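User: Can you model how S-adenosylmethionine sits in this protein?
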Amino acid sequence: MNAPLIDPFARAITYLRVSVTDRCDFRCVYCMSENMTFLPKKELLTLEELDRLCSTFVGLGVQKLRITGGEPLVRRGIMTFFDNMKRHLDSGALKELTLTTNGSQLERFADDLYAAGVRRVNISLDTLDEAKFAEITRWGRLPQVLRGIDAAQRAGLRVKINAVALKGFNEEELPAITRWCAERDMDLTWIEVMPMGDLGNEDRLGQYWSLRDVRARYAEEYTVTDLAERSGGPARYVRLEETGQKIGFITPLSHNFCESCNRVRITCTGEIFMCLGQEDVADLRAPLRSHPDDDAPLEAAIRAAIDRKPKGHDFDYSRQRLDGQMPRHMSHTGG
Ligand code: SAM
Ligand code: SF4
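Assistant: Here's the modeled complex, given as C-alpha cells:
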C-alpha cells in the first residue's frame, strides 16, 4: 500500500462515502422536489471510473466504503460494481462494504449484496404507517420496503433503520418504531432534519424536531444511558436499559465530532467534499478521465484534497437554518 491518507490534523482518512447516482425512485419531501432535473449521464462517473476511484482510495488506506445516492440500487449495473469491490474485501484491504438505501430494491438485490460481501445495510424509513409513508416519500410504497427489509434479513444482512425525526409527523410513532426495531433485532438511528427539498413548503408533513427532544421523549418511557461509543462520525448513542437497545442520534451538522472525523465524501460526478459542513470541494473526475491508464495524477489530486481537509465546521448553521437555505442537496453529496 502507498502512504496512507493523513490530513493536516493527523486524522487518518479510512472511511469513504460515495454517491453513485443522483436519481431516486422516491421523492422524499425533505430531500427532493417532485420535479427533479437530474444530471446528464456523461456527467456521472461510469461504473469503471467508480471502481478505479474507490480502488485507489482503498490502496491509500480506506477501510470502510459506504455506497449511497440518490438511491444507489437504481443505478443500472450497480451490482457489477459491488461484485467487483469484493476483491478488496477478499484481499483484506477493505474491512467493510456497505450501503444506505431506501429499501425499495432490496427484495431483488439482498442476496446479491450478501454474495458481494456486504454484511450490513442502513435502510431509511420514517414511518410504519402506509399512508404517511406515501405522503413523506411521495412515490414510495411501504409494503415494498417492508418486503425489502424482510429480504435483507433473510439474506443475512444486519439492518439498521435510519429515521428522520419530524415533529408532528413521526413523533407519536417513536415507541412503535422503537419496539418494531427491537422485535426484529434492528438498530435504530434518528437523524435530525436539515431544511432541504420541499420541506419548508409542506409544514403539514412535519417539521424540525431536535434530537435533544427526541432523547427527552425516550426518557419519558425508558431509562436512557449515554454511551461513550463513537464512530468517527456525527452519531451519538444511548442505551435503553429496559430493552438493551442501542439508539443512535445523528445531528448531521453538529460541531462535536470534527476532532475524530475520519471520512470524506464523493459525489456521483466525482467531486470530493472534505467536510460535510464546508463548501470546499475538489474535482477528481478530471484526473480520472484525462489519465485513463495512469493513477498517479488521481492519487496526487486525492492527496491534495486531503491536505485541504479543514479542522472542523466553521459555518453558522443556525443562521442558514433560519434562512431555510442549504447550499446543496443530500441527494447530491450523498446522505
Ligand atoms: N436513497 C437512500 C436512502 O434514502 O437511504 C440513500 C441516500 S439518502 C440522501 C441518505 C439519507 O439522507 C437518508 O437516510 C435520508 O433520510 C437522509 N436525508 C435526506 N434528506 C435529508 C434532510 N433534509 N435532512 C436529514 N436527513 C436527510
Ligand atoms: Fe431518495 Fe433517499 Fe432522497 Fe428519499 S432520502 S428522495 S429515498 S435519495
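A couple of observations from the model: The first strand starts at residue 15 and ends at 19. The chain has eleven helices and 13 strands.
User: Helpful, thanks.
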